[in-house]
Amino acid sequence: MRLSKMHLKTLREVPNEAEIPSHILLLRTGMIRKLVSGVYGFMPLGWRSIRKIEDIIRQEMDQAGGQEIHMSAVQPAELWEESGRWFAYGPELWRLKDRNGRDFCLGPTHEEIFTDIIRSDVSSYRQLPLNLYQIQTKYRDEARPRFGLMRSREFIMKDAYSFDRDQAGLDRSYEEMYAAYEKIFTRCGLTFRPVEADTGAIGGSNSHEFTALSEVGESEIAYCEKCQMAATVERAECVDAPASSAEELPLEEVHTPGTKTIEEVADFLGIGQDETIKALLFVTYDEEEKENGYVAAFVRGDRELNMTKLINALKIPEHSIEFADEEKMGAATGCVGGFTGPTRLHDCTIVVDSELPGLRNLCAGACKTDYHLKNVNYGRDYKADIITDIKTLKEGDPCPVCGAPIKHARGIEVGQVFKLGTKYSESMGATYKDENQKEQPIVMGCYGIGVTRTLAAVVEQHHDENGIIWPMSVAPYHAIITVMKPDDQTQADLAEHIYNELAAAGVEVLLDDRKERPGVKFKDADLLGIPVRITVGRGAADKTIEYKLRRDADKEEISADEGIARTIEIVNKEK
Amino acid sequence: MRLSKMHLKTLREVPNEAEIPSHILLLRTGMIRKLVSGVYGFMPLGWRSIRKIEDIIRQEMDQAGGQEIHMSAVQPAELWEESGRWFAYGPELWRLKDRNGRDFCLGPTHEEIFTDIIRSDVSSYRQLPLNLYQIQTKYRDEARPRFGLMRSREFIMKDAYSFDRDQAGLDRSYEEMYAAYEKIFTRCGLTFRPVEADTGAIGGSNSHEFTALSEVGESEIAYCEKCQMAATVERAECVDAPASSAEELPLEEVHTPGTKTIEEVADFLGIGQDETIKALLFVTYDEEEKENGYVAAFVRGDRELNMTKLINALKIPEHSIEFADEEKMGAATGCVGGFTGPTRLHDCTIVVDSELPGLRNLCAGACKTDYHLKNVNYGRDYKADIITDIKTLKEGDPCPVCGAPIKHARGIEVGQVFKLGTKYSESMGATYKDENQKEQPIVMGCYGIGVTRTLAAVVEQHHDENGIIWPMSVAPYHAIITVMKPDDQTQADLAEHIYNELAAAGVEVLLDDRKERPGVKFKDADLLGIPVRITVGRGAADKTIEYKLRRDADKEEISADEGIARTIEIVNKEK
């Protein structure tokens, strides 16, 4: 492709709205274009890279036995009501009506549709296992779309669904997809880590997130350098503090004026924060968005509440809970802002972290302004509706597997694999007849890859201050020929020769024949990040060119023929 | 691909809802699946054929200088308000709101988006011409979705937009696209005819529809066998009857009891229907869907009103006009159901067909129950707000170019090319600076292909009573190997050998290794319409097979090696 004919609009300035490198660089290279908040289009170079990622995914999915299909983005509400997700999914489900007032959504995921296909098409164990996938446009009406392709409202996703006879079959399908994902992300040039993950709104028993490591990622992962433990912070199990064998001391109300935080009360009383109980207060909502109850969650004072674990413990949708107005909640339950403890609370669901019942003589709020209670003990002084792990595994906490200190890292979730089990097949009636003619629920898995987000993750991991440094496999073009003076016939002819030779060898090559200053061309070539750059300048008379890889600092003056040969070699090796 | 592993669900019965062959066969082969009315998904075989059509389009578009991009399906209302189409498009525009109440639509077409790109990216004549295209999911909230992929609510379309400096540039771009379309539809195996078309809601000056000829098509075209004239019936110009030189006779009111139709009044008075005037009465609506006026349209009694021409003459959106309630309209305008003529009408827009002013002494309704007027003449007895061609070119009418009798045919609109001119660039401010630094509006064209509808059109033209007969170029697989007895090791081995040889040569091959009766397999192979069928049966011991093309009745017993060679040859020639 000749750059003089290509629609290319690079930007010198960093767009105001962009904060992270991938967003900045994808906009500056003109590869993506914002239409409105969270909605992007792909221009020629951006779309080429997306299609390369899609092709890598398609090859590995087919290799792993997947069959590609293509379902609609528009989905009828009825199916979502059947699975129970019409309410559970919350406001991120982008809803619409047709001209007859019938309810639809724009699919954020396709479990319902695929389960619907299978329940009507599959009747016998002989038709299983199956793995169906699609690469398709998905929607999520995000409250705060941001970071360009990282969190957008319309995006491209590969979603696959496996259908097996039993749990052992699901385990095999899951392992195949896990292995395919490792190949896919490796081929895309990503440094990633598969980590255990929460199953969130999709539901199911077991899940891994594939996380591309990156400072700007929105996923926080906890991992252990000693053993193989790695999980999202939402998911990571915590080790409870050992139970105390201390004697229970008498409950004592103490005056603690103005000590509204854990830090203040611990300082005031001269005790450790790990000798206190922290309270967090919530209100919950029903399907009509009416308040339907209060929740008080308690963790040890030095811990942090893990919201995902709390929501899972309550078995409610993520969007149906928020921090309570303490005054309003106080009137109903007896809580007092800054001085709430588990004792003296009423008419609310009390959720207590799993380690608290084992600890003795803790300090907690007295549900009375400027007062705390000392020597609070579970059983004697308070009871719980739910006792479970609701705390966050922090950096330095002991690894739940081996006890070594935990590390944290940030990453971008580029893929996720789920064992759904029979959640959808049971709610939607997808069964098959086994060898004994007995009806059995089909056992399902689902497997997603954020295609557009993967593009952003590649840029996050492959750039420098001058622009993108594409891995060959997903580069929009493999090579760029920069002609210093396109009006010089010798240079133009040599460039044309190299261009034709490379193209004939299957190299995807750009010819920068624009009437621009060399400085502009070099800046654009660096910004666009094309892996191989061949510069045709004064040496053209002697048939020499400058050969440079975008990822290396070195340039070399070599013959045009050697430049062609080296380019073909590296492209064939790395593409 | 082994059929025993493929997700394939063919149907023996004709689905109730399906009326036309493509709909019936695409459902019976399990290639498409209905989700809800007008919304379909593609199963493995269907999706393979769609991707082949997409690839043919992509190759020819790239060859013609197009650059592929990919814009969002979700579009903000603001851009449509700028172009004036938020109202003009009517209820087929599928509208939705985001969580903040902002208005969006699901794009039925992308003129606004592409114009928005170009107005921000293009500033100089040096950046033109440009042709950008995408293959993408489109939406139309049809009142009556039907015929499967023919008229659906979510569908795949290729849309391209050309941007030129001037009309001469647009003419070139248009010709290039026209030529590319001829190649594309030829490669897809379609028999088609490019016909002049109305520009409808998109707007613009000049357009051709590419019509795949088919009895079940929704487009009616008028063509001349003597000259090259071919146009949609909506668009086709009519030849006015020659003006009469007869003397104007005195206006006369006659009693014509109960003669509400043209036929009745002509019979009653003993005159030709071409000596009468036919009235058609309409009400129009404004943007708030309130009635804002009445329209009376008049054509010669033997003519048919052409609704498209009337709407174009009135310069209103298609959805803002409908037949009037004659009683209600009568109170306002003096019209009388069954007895309305152009004389004595008031307070309504009178549109008169172009030939009426030249004719003399016609009979028209008297705007009085049971009475007509004789010797009605334009000028003396009635006037018009608009005089233009609003009649339909019927079969047998004279060709507007050469005068020979016109023929009609039906077809499926698979593509359309438009000269938009400066309609969008002017309303949305897309300009460039010419060589003299003068701002000029960019001159645009747009070019659509219904990808999913093309699939249906191919099936309409290529099937028999047993199923589909795919052209090689868009067949989901090139060849199918039917094994009579998969449990017979000799047969299984030979089939496997042929399968591997064909696959190694790049033939896309299905191996029907299912444990089904041969009759079932043959029926499925015919239904699926795979171009080459190789049957491995008793002859396997002698390494002979049966070779059959789906399109031919003949079968041949030949050696397996010759079967392989012939298959590779025909696939390479026709794919």
The gist of it:
Two copies of one chain form a homodimer. With 575 residues, chain A is α+β, with helices and mostly antiparallel strands.
Give a verbal description of the structure.
- 2 copies of one chain form a homodimer.
- Chain A is α+β, with helices and mostly antiparallel strands.
- Chain A has 3 domains: 53-210 and 412-460, 2-Layer Sandwich (BirA Bifunctional Protein, domain 2), CATH 3.30.930; 252-388, YbaK/aminoacyl-tRNA synthetase-associated domain (YbaK protein, Alpha-Beta Complex), CATH 3.90.960; 477-574, Rossmann fold (3-Layer(aba) Sandwich), CATH 3.40.50.
- In chain A, strands 3, 7, 8, 9, 10, 11, 12, 21 and 24 form a 9-stranded mixed β-sheet that branches. In chain A, strands 16-14-15-17-20 form a 5-stranded mixed β-sheet, sandwiched between helices.
- In chain A, a hairpin with a 7-residue loop joins strand 29 and strand 30 (544-549).
- In chain A, helix 2 (44-63) packs antiparallel against helix 6.
- Chain A is globular, with a radius of gyration of 29 Å.
- The model of chain A has no long low-confidence stretch (mean pLDDT 96).
- At the A-B interface, strand 1, strand 2, helix 2, strand 3 and strand 4 of A face strand 1, strand 2, helix 2, strand 3 and strand 4 of B.
- Chains A, B: Keywords: Aminoacyl-tRNA synthetase, ATP-binding, Cytoplasm, Ligase, Nucleotide-binding, Protein biosynthesis.
- Chains A, B: Its EC number is 6.1.1.15.
- Chains A, B: Belongs to the class-II aminoacyl-tRNA synthetase family. ProS type 1 subfamily.
